[in-house]
Write a structure and sequence with these properties.
Layout: H1 3-22, H2 33-40, H3 47-54, H4 69-106
Helix pairs in contact: 1-4
């Protein structure tokens, strides 16, 4: 990865962190599209799905040590973004290494 790629990734990560921290708390509190369709059609969510949600560390964007709702949403947004970014980065690195190993094995 060259310098331009690193710069792009850094800027993109910075912008998304800013959006997660400062814009997400002001998002609509109305249900999203899927939740609205489920409610409109009176569809109930199966019990296993509810249980897996309750096992999540941030159910309903709640952070036990923080009282302000907007701060809680910002914190959980930044944490979620960081987990997804670094998880995706780690998977991508593993895939690149595996591809290099395969390419090395194929060469005579």
């Amino acid at each position: 990865m060259d310098r331009r790629d690193r710069t792009f990734i850094g800027v993109a990560l910075g912008v998304t962190l800013l959006l997660a921290a400062f814009v997400a708390p002001f998002a609509s509190s109305k249900p999203d599209g899927l939740e609205k369709v489920l409610a409109d059609n009176e569809v109930t969510v199966p019990e296993p799905a509810k249980k897996s949600e309750s096992d999540s560390p941030f159910v309903g964007y709640q952070v036990p040590a923080v009282e302000d709702e907007k701060k809680m949403i910002a914190i959980t947004g930044v944490i979620g973004l960081a987990v997804m970014f670094f998880g995706s980065y780690a998977i991508a690195k593993m895939m690149v290494r595996a591809k290099r190993r395969d390419d090395e094995r194929k060469q005579p």
